[in-house]
Design brief:
The chain is mainly alpha-helical. It is 45% helix and 0% strand. The longest helix has 16 residues.
Length: 91
């Protein structure tokens, strides 16, 4: 059974302005970015949050090679050591 997801009804403006845009503008942005209209809205809200909310921390994308190396080093130190007693495949 699908879980309920928070949603928001978005009503577009009749013309573009500082506090809203038309559906045609969102469609044009989606086409330009090769993404969905929903993703365009999320991108715009994320950029607004970065500017307006001091505590907001956006995802910076993939880890750098250095960051990934650090994570692997930390994980290796915490992995269990010893002989493998049993091994199973799921597929």
């Amino acid at each position: 059974m699908p879980t309920a997801v928070d949603s928001l009804l978005l009503k577009f403006r009749s013309k573009d302005g500082r506090f809203g845009v038309t559906r045609d503008t969102v469609k044009a942005l989606a086409s330009q970015l090769d993404t969905t209209e929903t993703q365009v809205v999320h991108l715009a809200l994320s950029k607004l949050a970065e500017e307006m909310l001091p505590a907001y921390e956006a995802d910076d994308g993939p880890l750098t090679a250095h960051q990934l190396s650090n994570v692997r080093t930390l994980a290796k130190a915490r992995m269990p050591k010893g002989k493998v007693l049993a091994k199973q495949r799921l597929f």
